[in-house]
Design a protein that fits this description.
Layout lengths: L2 E7 L6 H15 L3 E5 L1 E3 L7 H9 L9 E3 L5 H7 L6 H12 L4 E9 L3 E3 L2 E2 H8 L2 E7 L4 H14 L4 E7 L11 H8 L5 E3 L5 H5 L1
Length: 207
Protein backbone atom coordinates (compact mmCIF):
# COMPACT_ATOMS: atom_id res chain seq x y z
CA UNK A 1 0.00 0.00 0.00
CA UNK A 2 1.38 3.41 -1.01
CA UNK A 3 -1.50 5.73 -0.21
CA UNK A 4 -1.11 9.47 -0.62
CA UNK A 5 -3.40 11.77 1.33
CA UNK A 6 -3.43 15.49 0.62
CA UNK A 7 -4.33 17.62 3.61
CA UNK A 8 -6.00 20.72 2.26
CA UNK A 9 -7.96 23.50 3.88
CA UNK A 10 -10.77 25.94 3.38
CA UNK A 11 -8.27 28.80 3.71
CA UNK A 12 -4.93 29.82 5.16
CA UNK A 13 -4.54 29.64 8.93
CA UNK A 14 -7.08 26.89 9.63
CA UNK A 15 -4.64 24.51 11.34
CA UNK A 16 -3.55 22.25 8.47
CA UNK A 17 -0.07 21.67 9.89
CA UNK A 18 -1.35 20.89 13.38
CA UNK A 19 -3.92 18.49 11.94
CA UNK A 20 -1.37 16.84 9.64
CA UNK A 21 1.04 16.34 12.55
CA UNK A 22 -1.69 14.73 14.66
CA UNK A 23 -2.69 12.43 11.79
CA UNK A 24 0.97 11.54 11.19
CA UNK A 25 1.50 10.53 14.81
CA UNK A 26 -1.69 8.48 14.79
CA UNK A 27 -0.73 6.67 11.58
CA UNK A 28 2.84 6.08 12.76
CA UNK A 29 1.46 4.12 15.71
CA UNK A 30 -0.19 1.69 13.29
CA UNK A 31 2.09 1.73 10.24
CA UNK A 32 5.84 1.42 10.23
CA UNK A 33 6.45 3.61 7.21
CA UNK A 34 4.65 6.94 7.36
CA UNK A 35 5.93 10.14 5.78
CA UNK A 36 4.57 13.66 6.05
CA UNK A 37 5.65 16.50 3.81
CA UNK A 38 4.78 20.13 3.20
CA UNK A 39 4.50 20.65 -0.53
CA UNK A 40 5.24 24.37 -0.67
CA UNK A 41 5.87 26.72 2.25
CA UNK A 42 5.71 30.49 1.94
CA UNK A 43 6.38 33.38 4.26
CA UNK A 44 8.87 34.00 7.07
CA UNK A 45 9.51 31.31 9.65
CA UNK A 46 9.41 32.00 13.37
CA UNK A 47 10.57 28.88 15.17
CA UNK A 48 10.25 25.49 13.51
CA UNK A 49 9.00 25.48 9.93
CA UNK A 50 5.90 23.52 8.93
CA UNK A 51 8.09 21.03 7.09
CA UNK A 52 10.24 20.46 10.16
CA UNK A 53 7.17 19.98 12.38
CA UNK A 54 5.81 17.34 10.00
CA UNK A 55 9.14 15.49 9.93
CA UNK A 56 9.28 15.49 13.73
CA UNK A 57 5.76 14.07 13.92
CA UNK A 58 6.76 10.91 12.02
CA UNK A 59 10.40 10.79 13.10
CA UNK A 60 11.46 10.62 9.45
CA UNK A 61 15.01 11.44 8.43
CA UNK A 62 13.89 13.00 5.17
CA UNK A 63 12.43 15.21 4.00
CA UNK A 64 12.86 17.51 6.97
CA UNK A 65 11.65 20.67 5.24
CA UNK A 66 9.07 21.62 2.64
CA UNK A 67 9.79 20.45 -0.88
CA UNK A 68 9.77 24.09 -1.99
CA UNK A 69 10.28 27.21 0.10
CA UNK A 70 9.67 30.89 -0.76
CA UNK A 71 10.11 33.89 1.55
CA UNK A 72 7.15 36.04 0.46
CA UNK A 73 3.99 35.58 2.61
CA UNK A 74 1.67 35.18 -0.37
CA UNK A 75 0.23 32.30 -2.36
CA UNK A 76 2.76 29.91 -3.90
CA UNK A 77 2.35 31.10 -7.48
CA UNK A 78 2.95 34.73 -6.49
CA UNK A 79 5.74 33.84 -4.05
CA UNK A 80 7.58 31.92 -6.77
CA UNK A 81 7.15 34.80 -9.20
CA UNK A 82 8.60 37.24 -6.65
CA UNK A 83 11.59 34.92 -6.36
CA UNK A 84 12.11 35.09 -10.11
CA UNK A 85 10.60 31.79 -11.21
CA UNK A 86 7.63 29.49 -10.93
CA UNK A 87 6.79 26.25 -9.19
CA UNK A 88 7.93 23.24 -11.23
CA UNK A 89 4.81 21.13 -10.73
CA UNK A 90 6.23 18.08 -12.49
CA UNK A 91 9.27 18.10 -10.19
CA UNK A 92 6.98 18.61 -7.18
CA UNK A 93 4.88 15.59 -8.17
CA UNK A 94 7.99 13.51 -8.78
CA UNK A 95 9.25 14.41 -5.31
CA UNK A 96 6.03 13.28 -3.66
CA UNK A 97 5.99 10.04 -5.63
CA UNK A 98 9.59 9.31 -4.63
CA UNK A 99 8.69 9.77 -0.97
CA UNK A 100 5.52 7.70 -1.32
CA UNK A 101 7.42 4.82 -2.93
CA UNK A 102 9.05 3.97 0.39
CA UNK A 103 6.07 4.66 2.65
CA UNK A 104 2.83 2.91 3.46
CA UNK A 105 1.07 6.25 3.83
CA UNK A 106 2.26 9.69 2.76
CA UNK A 107 0.60 12.85 4.06
CA UNK A 108 1.12 15.81 1.75
CA UNK A 109 0.11 19.16 3.21
CA UNK A 110 -1.06 21.76 0.73
CA UNK A 111 -0.73 25.52 0.90
CA UNK A 112 -3.79 27.61 1.72
CA UNK A 113 -7.14 26.43 0.41
CA UNK A 114 -7.96 23.78 -2.15
CA UNK A 115 -7.90 26.16 -5.12
CA UNK A 116 -4.86 28.13 -3.97
CA UNK A 117 -2.54 28.21 -6.99
CA UNK A 118 0.87 26.56 -7.13
CA UNK A 119 1.10 28.05 -10.61
CA UNK A 120 -1.45 30.18 -12.44
CA UNK A 121 -2.89 27.08 -14.08
CA UNK A 122 -2.36 24.45 -11.36
CA UNK A 123 -3.84 24.44 -7.86
CA UNK A 124 -3.78 22.10 -4.88
CA UNK A 125 -6.71 20.16 -6.30
CA UNK A 126 -4.84 19.55 -9.57
CA UNK A 127 -1.86 18.19 -7.64
CA UNK A 128 -4.12 15.86 -5.66
CA UNK A 129 -5.79 14.61 -8.82
CA UNK A 130 -2.52 14.02 -10.66
CA UNK A 131 -1.13 12.11 -7.69
CA UNK A 132 -4.25 9.93 -7.50
CA UNK A 133 -4.44 11.08 -3.89
CA UNK A 134 -7.25 11.11 -1.39
CA UNK A 135 -7.99 14.28 0.57
CA UNK A 136 -8.77 15.45 4.07
CA UNK A 137 -10.21 18.93 4.55
CA UNK A 138 -9.15 21.09 7.49
CA UNK A 139 -11.74 23.71 8.40
CA UNK A 140 -12.24 26.09 11.32
CA UNK A 141 -15.11 25.38 13.68
CA UNK A 142 -16.40 28.94 13.36
CA UNK A 143 -19.09 30.94 11.60
CA UNK A 144 -18.74 30.81 7.81
CA UNK A 145 -17.21 27.37 7.73
CA UNK A 146 -20.34 25.74 6.32
CA UNK A 147 -20.15 27.69 3.07
CA UNK A 148 -16.38 27.34 2.69
CA UNK A 149 -16.37 23.64 3.55
CA UNK A 150 -19.28 22.76 1.28
CA UNK A 151 -17.63 24.57 -1.63
CA UNK A 152 -14.40 22.66 -0.97
CA UNK A 153 -16.24 19.34 -0.84
CA UNK A 154 -18.06 20.13 -4.08
CA UNK A 155 -14.80 20.97 -5.84
CA UNK A 156 -13.25 17.69 -4.69
CA UNK A 157 -16.25 15.70 -5.90
CA UNK A 158 -16.27 17.44 -9.28
CA UNK A 159 -12.57 16.58 -9.70
CA UNK A 160 -13.14 12.95 -8.65
CA UNK A 161 -10.83 13.28 -5.65
CA UNK A 162 -12.00 10.99 -2.85
CA UNK A 163 -12.48 12.90 0.40
CA UNK A 164 -11.82 10.91 3.56
CA UNK A 165 -13.47 13.53 5.72
CA UNK A 166 -13.45 16.95 7.32
CA UNK A 167 -11.49 17.87 10.45
CA UNK A 168 -13.24 20.78 12.16
CA UNK A 169 -10.62 22.59 14.14
CA UNK A 170 -11.61 24.59 17.22
CA UNK A 171 -8.92 27.06 18.24
CA UNK A 172 -8.98 30.48 19.79
CA UNK A 173 -12.12 31.80 21.46
CA UNK A 174 -14.49 30.43 18.81
CA UNK A 175 -17.93 31.97 18.35
CA UNK A 176 -21.63 31.16 18.69
CA UNK A 177 -21.42 28.51 15.96
CA UNK A 178 -18.51 26.59 17.49
CA UNK A 179 -19.67 23.12 18.49
CA UNK A 180 -22.70 23.18 16.17
CA UNK A 181 -20.97 23.14 12.79
CA UNK A 182 -20.19 19.42 12.78
CA UNK A 183 -23.84 18.39 13.03
CA UNK A 184 -24.78 21.02 10.46
CA UNK A 185 -22.21 19.66 7.99
CA UNK A 186 -23.43 16.12 8.52
CA UNK A 187 -26.93 17.26 7.59
CA UNK A 188 -25.79 19.32 4.61
CA UNK A 189 -23.26 16.80 3.27
CA UNK A 190 -24.70 13.37 4.08
CA UNK A 191 -22.14 10.60 3.93
CA UNK A 192 -19.20 12.90 4.65
CA UNK A 193 -17.19 11.94 7.73
CA UNK A 194 -16.93 15.00 9.96
CA UNK A 195 -14.79 14.98 13.11
CA UNK A 196 -14.10 17.67 15.70
CA UNK A 197 -10.48 18.00 16.78
CA UNK A 198 -11.66 18.99 20.25
CA UNK A 199 -12.87 15.40 20.78
CA UNK A 200 -10.36 12.75 21.84
CA UNK A 201 -9.51 10.15 19.21
CA UNK A 202 -10.65 12.17 16.22
CA UNK A 203 -7.55 11.17 14.27
CA UNK A 204 -8.46 7.48 14.33
CA UNK A 205 -11.85 8.23 12.82
CA UNK A 206 -10.30 9.88 9.75
CA UNK A 207 -7.43 7.53 8.84
Amino acid sequence: MHDIIVITGTDFGVGKTWITCALARSLAERHGAVRAVKLVETGPVSGASDGALLAAATGQSSPTEALLRYPAPVTAAEAAARSGGEVDVDALLAGVRQIAAVADVTLAEGTGGLLAPFTWDCSVIDVARRLGAMAIVAAPDTRGTLNHTLLTLRALAESNVNCLGVALNAFGPGDASTGTNADALRRLAPGTRVVETSRAGWEHRLV
